[in-house]
């Protein structure tokens, strides 16, 4: 598979985080709508047999990745630093990946520093933002579209949280692509279709807009003598034979739902819940030549009763890292993430 670096620029607020598995789902719908259902079926052939046509990462601030989900003792301590301030250092510059892993905490920055850097060194300090985004509740009210009223229950307000990013912010998404099944130009156009229509929740009222600024071939970075994988998207590691003693991750449950026209089919938009490992997990396994780990989920009605062929991206692009596994002996009872 060929690796690409995609630069996206947000054009509106977002109501759904741009996670790799969610973006993959919308890419499938974009392929169907632009290239046809037969083309999508060809792309998805063998998807659950470790033969994905595309594996997509989360969207990261341009030039940065998330620090690995490792216990604190894995990193060299910062002398004299406040513990709470150190915990906020979660953004790792891509150009620091070549440094030894224990030193990564020294290169990492917090969101305030990252936001200030994005505004440029010439901007006055008082005008620099303190965070990458701001979240605000947007009031809504349930409307009966047939009667154009609030319906029998009357006034029924609710709020949806919207996330607004700092002006000029750019994201990087890493895409592993089988160009024999979906070429780069079609993939770029389908991503732009998503940006034009809107990504995620409330796209119909203008949220989730973005532009595709670039789509360039770029190999994923990796450390020399890599013996473990750092994931760039949520993944499903179950049953993959990873070394559990030296693997670290945070679990979360994905309560997925169908998008596009599938929302209206059979009146059942919800999928079966999935247990996934959150982005920036570390798995002690030799980095594969394919550039991804995990598995494809679904098919044959396993994930959805509405659309039995539905699949979910349980794969994740990975960066090869050199993990000193002897560090596990420092704290054998440490919490595993």
Key terms for this structure?
337 residues; alpha+beta; five-stranded antiparallel β-sheet; four-stranded antiparallel β-sheet; 16% helix; CRISPR system Cms protein Csm4; antiviral defense; Csm4
SSE map:
Elements: E1 2-10, H1 20-35, H2 37-44, E2 54-61, E3 64-66, H3 83-87, E4 91-93, H4 104-107, H5 111-118, E5 133-141, E6 157-165, E7 171-177, H6 184-197, E8 210-217, E9 228-231, E10 243-248, E11 251-254, E12 274-277, E13 282-284, E14 292-298, E15 311-321
Antiparallel strand pairs: 1-7, 1-8, 2-7, 3-4, 5-6, 9-13, 9-15, 10-13, 11-12, 14-15
Helix pairs in contact: 1-2, 1-6
Can you walk me through this structure?
The chain contains six helices and 15 strands. It has helices at 20-35, 37-44, 83-87, 104-107, 111-118, 184-197, and strands at residues 2-10, 54-61, 64-66, 91-93, 133-141, 157-165, 171-177, 210-217, 228-231, 243-248, 251-254, 274-277, 282-284, 292-298, 311-321. The relative contact order is 0.22. It has one domain (2-116, 147-330).
């Amino acid at each position: 598979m060929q690796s690409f670096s995609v630069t996206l620029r947000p054009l509106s607020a977002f109501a759904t985080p741009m996670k790799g598995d969610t973006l993959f789902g919308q890419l499938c719908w974009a392929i169907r709508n632009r290239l046809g259902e037969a083309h999508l079926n060809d792309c998805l052939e063998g998807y659950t047999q470790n033969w994905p046509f595309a594996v997509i990462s989360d969207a990261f601030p341009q030039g940065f990745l998330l620090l690995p989900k490792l216990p604190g003792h894995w990193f060299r301590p910062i002398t004299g630093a406040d513990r709470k301030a150190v915990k906020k250092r979660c953004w790792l510059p891509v150009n620091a990946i070549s440094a030894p892993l224990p030193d990564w905490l020294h290169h990492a920055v917090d969101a305030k520093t990252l936001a200030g850097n994005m505004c440029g060194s010439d901007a006055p300090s008082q005008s620099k933002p303190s965070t990458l985004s701001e979240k605000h509740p947007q009031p809504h009210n349930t409307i009966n579209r047939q009667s154009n009223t609030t319906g029998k229950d009357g006034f029924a307000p609710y709020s949806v949280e919207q996330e607004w990013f700092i002006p000029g912010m750019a994201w990087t998404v890493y895409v592993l692509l089988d160009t024999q099944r979906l070429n780069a130009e079609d993939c770029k156009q389908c991503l732009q279709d998503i940006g034009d229509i809107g990504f995620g929740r409330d796209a119909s009222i203008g949220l989730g807009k973005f532009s595709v600024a670039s789509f360039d071939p770029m190999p994923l970075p990796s450390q020399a003598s890599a013996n473990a994988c750092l994931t760039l998207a949520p993944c499903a590691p179950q049953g993959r034979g990873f070394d559990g003693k030296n693997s670290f991750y945070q679990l979360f449950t994905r309560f997925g739902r169908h998008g596009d026209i599938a929302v209206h089919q059979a009146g059942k938009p919800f999928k079966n819940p999935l247990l996934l490992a959150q982005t920036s997990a570390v798995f002690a396994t030799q980095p594969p030549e394919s550039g991804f780990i995990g598995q494809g989920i679904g098919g044959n009605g396993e994930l959805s009763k509405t659309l039995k062929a539905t699949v979910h991206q349980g794969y994740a692009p990975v960066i090869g890292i050199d993990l000193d596994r002897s560090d596990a002996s420092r704290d054998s009872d440490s919490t595993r993430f």
